[in-house]
Amino acid sequence: MSFTHKKRFTLFDYANYTLLIAISIVCLFPILYLILVSLTDKEVYVPFQFHLWPQKLSLDAYTYILSTPSFLTAFKNTVFITLIGTLLNLIFTFTMAYGLTDKQMPFRNAILGMVVLTLVFNPGIIPNYLLVKNLGLLNSYGALIWPALTNAWSLIVVKSFLDSIPPELRESAKMDGCTDIGVFLRIILPLSMPAVAAFTLFFAIAHWNTYFNAVLYLTDTAKWTLQVLVKTMVLDASSNMTGNMAASTDDHVLPQETVRMASVVLAMLPILIVYPFLQKHFAKGVMLGSVKG
């Protein structure tokens, strides 16, 4: 005989849900404002006035932004850095973490100690700049990729995840004639897909949002990343990186604010599109990487 128990909501539950809904609205409001302003037609746009829905919608700001050479160049630069950087991050992080899981690896404890040391102590901006300069990477995409191939936190989390995989699988594969590389590619990597998905998102977001290092290492505006260009457009009123902030289209002048907001929306749109496809594996990968079985 079974009984179905329905949860009784208390006053605390209602207050809790109300607070969470209010916080969600506050968080979503800036995004909603960006989208509405970017879609507002130039004929009805009034600065410093907010409407829940524009009286007239228009894609003129997006059309102008996507036809601007500087924006398209920055977009291509960011896509290139994100794809190559994320791929290299995954390769170096997972291969190094896999090596550190082998207790027979020479100098394993010393290497782990150096990894943890970099987690505790950061050399700072000047030593990093001198390193990039001495490597001849200034004003190149390599300055944003090679110095950040992996990091201590990622290595530790991925190593913890790989440690949770039963070692018997590795031993049985080696008994069947698999090499270490074969074990990694055929056994470890397929079982690590949740962690791969999670760190793909971590690394991709980090590269896509690259701003400070791009400002520090890139002096050629043709190599700027999207975030640097958007910052210049949004905060520097005198900038003409997009040709003219008060853009002309069809003999009418587009408001500066709609062009700026459209650039911000386009900058964050790819991550918003990719995240839902990785969300399931992202949550699973984080949980599995935090527990050693």
TrEMBL record:
It comes from the Bacteria. Keywords: Cell membrane, Membrane, Transmembrane, Transmembrane helix, Transport. The keyword Signal does not apply. Pfam families: BPD_transp_1. The keyword Signal does not apply. Residues 75-278 form the ABC transmembrane type-1 domain. It is a multi-pass membrane protein. Its main location: membrane. InterPro entries: MetI-like, MetI-like_sf. The chain crosses the membrane at residues 12-36, 79-98, 110-131, 183-208, 259-278. It is found in: Cell membrane. Belongs to the binding-protein-dependent transport system permease family. PANTHER family: ABC TRANSPORTER PERMEASE PROTEIN MG189-RELATED-RELATED, POLYGALACTURONAN_RHAMNOGALACTURONAN TRANSPORT SYSTEM PERMEASE PROTEIN YTCP. This is Carbohydrate ABC transporter permease. The lineage of its organism: Bacteria, Bacillati, Bacillota, Bacilli, Bacillales.
